[in-house]
Description:
Layout: E1 3-7, E2 10-15, E3 18-22, E4 26-29, E5 32-37, H1 44-57, E6 61-66, H2 71-83, H3 93-108, E7 114-120, H4 125-134, E8 139-144, E9 155-164, E10 167-172
Parallel strand pairs: 3-10, 5-8, 5-9, 6-7, 7-8
Antiparallel strand pairs: 1-4, 2-3, 9-10
Amino acid sequence: xxxxxxxxxxxxxxxxxxxxxxxxxxxxxxxxxxxxxxxxxxxxxxxxxxxxxxxxxxxxxxxxxxxxxxxxxxxxxxxxxxxxxxxxxxxxxxxxxxxxxxxxxxxxxxxxxxxxxxxxxxxxxxxxxxxxxxxxxxxxxxxxxxxxxxxxxxxxxxxxxxxxxxxxxxxxx
Length: 173
């Protein structure tokens, strides 16, 4: 495992009247899954949207974000497929994930580049984990789920704990 990027220590305002404290810089390693845990409202999805995704945009990586409510992604992927004369029928989350993973696979042909998978309570975990296992890719995978997700890849936990009503703390366990 090698460190790909890090989440800097500090206090981050995730939304008005709510902040996330990160007491120590967290090194994110390749070939590692990170399970993000915390109670409802602790800031798990906000961590992804406000901190992690902007960080990934500055990193030289491909990233695939499958969000909790995929209706907007479904519409966008349908439009992308239509504009590219794709023969794929895209009607549900499973087909969205398949289409995006196939596009990622074609982008990776002959290239070695980090792939970051960000999975926010989506039902497509197994499809993404199968992709990681089947393709020899450098990856980092972030998983939010209230259910126990069976992951047979190296996993670390990023725990978000509420400090009080206006802030939470993120720590690598």
